[in-house]
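Here is the promised in-class demo. Please do not try to memorize the tokens; focus on the logic of going from shape to residues.
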């Protein structure tokens, strides 16, 4: 039976929300059995649950179920129709299903946590962005190791809650940044750190997305939710919104309330490269150079944003250009794209996603997600390095099996350091992306005071740092301001 509020339920501000923490924790009555435990016995299988089994969640189910060190103990989805399709990856032409017969199925994740108890060691959260924060916090509070799809949250406050809960729990975390275990990422850093191209000067990142609707001025007309969908559970902690066509299951990315725009979708992949290479931290300022369409409730169709990062002991200040989607030129859509670096052939055709890292003595370029092996310009430089014996040794650790396998190995071996995209790393990367969203959503530049979790020079942006949340969804919270 689907449940739906007959009227919008109460929402609370950040101040009153923090005061209601104790009551919320009592309402949820989440199990505490596993808190403080340090993983599972060596050489045993990891008992894993997955929340959200369609889209990227479907890919995660297939991958995690195929890991010989994992027992897929439970899956959960708020839509029974999609739950029945679990195990069919969304991006592969196959009718094979990989969910074992013994895997328990749930439509509410808190019920999964309660009923599975200590039979569940870890959870993958693969739901829409707006649900990550409360689901991850509650899973950590219940003593589970957690893998979260990117970005950590669609709000900065939510991402900080997740990070705080992870640190308090001592559990092993990971964000789904598929670049982060790629060979190309390590080669990028090893070659740069060896000084082969001199100092970095500019960074340019781009994507052809969005591939979904944008620029809407109002939400879809209210409709009864499908009989298979528990709409209230899908909304989670997010401020109430009537169900309407074009939100579930895929087009939620069109709405700021549920998604985190193109930056949230792709920047965690694309920015990961310079973030890892140069220790970017969070930006001190973001400018909106150009933007096409977009409203305060729906994402733009294209934009060019400029991120400013302060200097560190290892480098000077850096500028990062972000390009997404299209703009209108003489009535036609033209992609937002960077200029081709001078050291590259000027007739180079750019891929749908890519990166330029421009240095004193040349440029590095890669395409796609996950990251490919870097191309080096001017042409011939890489061959010259090889001939002269300049290529550095491969000194950075390599990962076998990808981002999920890395997380599983970290848990089974009780070595948190093996999870290289853990929340200590991912929180800053997520915040960088979401500060960019504050600028795009308000269509204006801003300064960012990370210590106060506050935008400067753009007061309108501050109301989106923590959006209103509904009572009873977080088992505990921290004052992260």
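The designed amino acids, position by position:
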């Amino acid at each position: 039976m689907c449940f739906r509020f007959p009227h919008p339920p109460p929402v609370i501000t950040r101040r009153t929300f923090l005061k209601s923490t104790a009551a919320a924790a009592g309402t949820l009555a989440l199990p505490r059995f596993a808190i403080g435990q340090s993983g599972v016995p060596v050489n045993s299988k990891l008992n894993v649950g997955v929340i959200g089994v369609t889209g990227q969640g479907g890919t995660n189910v297939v991958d995690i179920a195929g890991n010989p060190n994992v027992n897929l103990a439970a899956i959960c989805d708020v839509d029974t129709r999609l739950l029945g399709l679990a195990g069919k990856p969304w991006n592969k032409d196959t009718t094979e299903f990989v969910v074992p017969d013994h895997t328990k199925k749930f439509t509410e994740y808190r019920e999964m946590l309660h009923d599975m108890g200590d039979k569940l060691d870890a959870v993958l959260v693969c739901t829409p962005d707006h649900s990550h924060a409360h689901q991850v916090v509650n899973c950590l509070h219940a003593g589970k190791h957690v893998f979260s799809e990117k970005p950590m949250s669609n709000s900065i406050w939510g991402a900080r809650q997740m990070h705080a809960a992870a640190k308090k729990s001592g559990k092993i975390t990971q964000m789904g940044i598929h670049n982060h275990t790629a060979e190309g990422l390590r080669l990028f850093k090893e070659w740069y750190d060896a000084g082969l191209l001199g100092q970095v000067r500019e960074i340019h990142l781009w994507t052809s997305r969005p591939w979904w609707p944008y620029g809407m001025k109002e939400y879809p007309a209210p409709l009864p939710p499908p009989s298979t969908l528990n709409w209230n559970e899908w909304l989670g902690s997010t401020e109430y919104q009537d169900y309407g066509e074009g939100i579930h299951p895929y087009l939620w990315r069109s709405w700021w309330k549920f998604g985190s725009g193109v930056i949230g979708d792709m920047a965690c992949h694309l920015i990961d490269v310079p973030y890892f290479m140069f220790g970017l931290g969070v930006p001190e300022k973001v400018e909106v150079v150009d933007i096409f369409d977009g409203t305060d409730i729906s994402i733009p169709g294209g934009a060019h944003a400029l991120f400013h990062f302060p200097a560190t002991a290892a480098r000077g200040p850096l500028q990062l250009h972000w390009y997404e989607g299209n703009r209108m030129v003489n009535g036609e859509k033209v992609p937002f794209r960077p200029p081709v670096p001078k050291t590259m052939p000027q007739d180079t055709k750019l891929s749908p996603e890519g990166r330029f890292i421009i240095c004193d003595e040349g440029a590095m370029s890669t395409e796609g997600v996950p990251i490919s092996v870097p191309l080096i310009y001017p042409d011939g430089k890489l061959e010259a390095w090889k001939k002269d014996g300049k290529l550095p040794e491969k000194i950075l650790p390599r990962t076998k099996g990808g981002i999920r396998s890395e997380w599983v190995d970290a848990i089974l071996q009780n070595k948190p350091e093996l999870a290289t995209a853990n929340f200590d790393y991912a929180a800053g990367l997520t915040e960088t992306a979401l500060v960019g969203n504050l600028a795009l959503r308000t269509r204006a530049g801003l300064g960012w005071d990370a210590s106060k979790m506050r935008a400067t020079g753009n007061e309108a942006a501050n109301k989106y740092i923590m959006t209103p949340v509904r009572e009873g969804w977080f088992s505990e919270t921290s004052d992260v301001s």
